[in-house]
Amino acid sequence: MDMREWHTKATQITPDIYCLEIPTPFNVGAVNVYLIKGEKLTLIDVGPKTDEAWQALTEGLQAAGVSVEEIEQIVLTHHHVDHCGQLEKVRKKSGALTLAHPQAAPYVELDAEFMDFHDQFFLQLYKKSGVPSDKLIIIEKFHKLMTTFSEPSQIDLKLKHEQQVPHLPEWQVLYTPGHSQSHLSLYRERDRTMIGGDHIIGHISSNAFIEPPRDRSGARPLTLVQYRTALQMCADMEIEQVLAGHGEIVRNHRELISSRLQKNWSRTDTLRSLLADKELTAYELTTLLFPAIYEKELPLTLSETLGHIDLLMILHQIEVREQDGVLYYHL
Question: Which pTM does this prediction carry?
Answer without folding.
Answer: 0.95
